[in-house]
Sequence to fold (246 residues):
Amino acid sequence: MPFQSENSPVPIPPPGEDELPYDDGEPMESERHRAQMDMLIEVLKLFWHDRDDVYVAGNMAIYFSELQAKKNDFRGPDVFVVLDTNRRERKSWVVWQEDGRTPDVVIELLSESTEAVDRGEKMRVYAKLLHVPEYYLFDPFSGALEAYALDRATRSYAPVPPEANGDVVSACLGLRLGVRRGTYLGREADWLRWLDAQGRVLPTAEEQARAAEEQARAASDEAKRLAARLAEYEKRFGPLPGNGSD
Fold:
């Protein structure tokens, strides 16, 4: 909907991401919060590296109404995912520039200073105004994970019970979320991790590199063992046909 200046009845185009502030002005609560946010975003981008129809971001302002844009009174989600869109660099998510598309999944990382807002105003906005289908709350220090699904009839969230092991299913993404002990950026902790449909942890770039090194080392060790066995055989029985013999 076009904006209208107070001094002129002529509608003017609404501001876009280049005009609107894109920093929500709220620093992450702690290093753990920042690392957890970065991990969740990094892993999904790696997992969907060949897809151009998914957008993953965090700590970015989302603009959804003229009044909210004018007041700039809404903090961005810690992590959000939008499906059926185009992957490109953005300064902020401006709903009227995105054909009305809003996030499909939002994750908020709880802290003492933000928990009341995450459970109150943000939850209300995500449900009643943005209609986000899935909403997750995670405390990076206690390891507590909560999942909510949107009831479209009431435009409110209903708790989603976890599985026996505490994991929760993201129907929108075809993935799972679960808490796993591990090391990220040199910090060992209980991290919120993306899991595939079978419950396997989706790796970070560091984990992918480590797995590749271990695989290469295992292949090298196996090659050395085979070479040693061949050398022992030829020492006892002579060269194998086609292996240096006439």
The chain is about 30% helix and 25% strand. The radius of gyration is 25 Å.
